[in-house]
Prior knowledge:
Blueprint: H1 4-19, H2 26-46, H3 48-51, H4 57-68, H5 70-86
Helix pairs in contact: 1-5, 2-4, 2-5
Amino acid sequence: MPSQSALDDDQIWIDRFQRWGLSAVAPVLLDVLRPLGLVSSQLIIMAKPVLTSFVSTAQIDQFTALIEDPDRLARLRQAIETEGKAT
């Protein structure tokens, strides 16, 4: 069972995808990230000093934790699709 913190972070990402207008393409993006999650997260961690010029360290840490966990990506994808059908 996922922790409440992980569920809260997932909701934050769902809200961000909606705010950025990416709800329609987010499931595809998450499908692409799923097999590349660990490698992608390591690349993001290496680029963290540059990325912190654009986003906060907390956001980077949240995103890397998300993409390292295939189960969270699957849950997030499902939640985005469910919310997309509800609206």
